[in-house]
């Protein structure tokens, strides 16, 4: 996402937890303004137009844990990262997942993977509540499913490469209107059932 935004000339402020390990971000330093709190005001004196809440975790092997054997510490950990840490601020896209959708849950097994899936269902609820609150104030807020993507989380079996997912998501973000506020969007422009 940073690469595509920087390429088209947007000013990008990317944050990460371990800069020394973020080799791809480091390589992009030349084309985007490297995060420094003091620089933010100079770059964006009028604030941000788009905020993507991207961070998310899922534990290995979660997909086989039956719902009644869910580890409560695991549930708290996943919720802390995927839901509680979400902030709110023109366009706010909260990274959701089709795995948080009740409408489509039978496609992926309907009694497994509770922490991640419940956390993404909660991302949807949090997004809609803030969409209801701030959508009337020229903010557009919505949960966004990136597709199944070849990342560390998505794995090598995923059908989508990151550039394709990102360009689809940027298309939705760029073209978001008040009608998008509070909808559950997918990378390909379709809405997703709750
Ligand atoms: N890949 C898929 O198929 C897929 C499908 C649906 C939804 N999603 C969602 O898309 C988003 C991005 O996932 P991804 O596929 O890119 O996963 P990923 O490859 O595992 O990357 C997750 C990112 O989240 C960051 N992160 C995790 N915990 C964090 C925390 N507590 N504070 C700050 N950053 C934290 C990680 O930072 P570090 O590098 O520092 O660990 C990493 O950059 C997530 O919200 C995920 O749930 C992904």
UniProtKB/TrEMBL annotation:
GO cellular component, one term: cytoplasm
Single GO MF descriptor: oxidoreductase activity
InterPro entries in the record: Fungal_SecMetab_SDRs, NAD(P)-bd_dom_sf, SDR_fam
PANTHER family linked to this entry: CHAIN OXIDOREDUCTASE (CSGA), PUTATIVE (AFU_ORTHOLOGUE AFUA_4G00910)-RELATED (PTHR43544:SF36), SHORT-CHAIN DEHYDROGENASE/REDUCTASE (PTHR43544)
Entry's family note: Belongs to the short-chain dehydrogenases/reductases (SDR) family.
Protein name, as recorded: Uncharacterized protein
Source taxonomy: Eukaryota, Fungi, Fungi incertae sedis, Mucoromycota, Mucoromycotina
């Amino acid at each position: 996402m940073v690469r595509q935004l920087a390429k088209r000339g947007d000013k990008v402020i990317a944050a990460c937890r371990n800069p020394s390990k973020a080799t791809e971000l480091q390589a992009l330093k030349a084309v985007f303004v490297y995060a420094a709190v003091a620089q933010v005001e100079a770059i964006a004196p009028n604030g941000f137009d788009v905020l993507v809440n991207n961070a998310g975790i899922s534990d290995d092997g979660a997909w086989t844990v039956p719902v009644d054997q869910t580890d409560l510490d695991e549930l708290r950990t996943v919720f802390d990262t995927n839901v509680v840490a979400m902030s709110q601020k023109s366009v706010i896209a909260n990274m959701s997942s089709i795995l948080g959708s009740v409408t489509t849950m039978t496609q992926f097994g309907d009694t497994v993977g509770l922490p991640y899936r419940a956390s993404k269902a909660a991302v949807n609820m949090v997004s809609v509540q803030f969409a209801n609150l701030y959508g009337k104030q020229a903010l557009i807020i919505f949960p966004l499913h990136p597709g199944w993507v070849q990342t560390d989380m998505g794995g090598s079996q995923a059908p989508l490469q990151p550039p394709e997912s990102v360009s689809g998501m940027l298309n939705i973000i760029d073209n978001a209107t008040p009608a998008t506020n509070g909808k559950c969007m997918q990378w390909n422009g379709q809405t997703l059932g709750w």
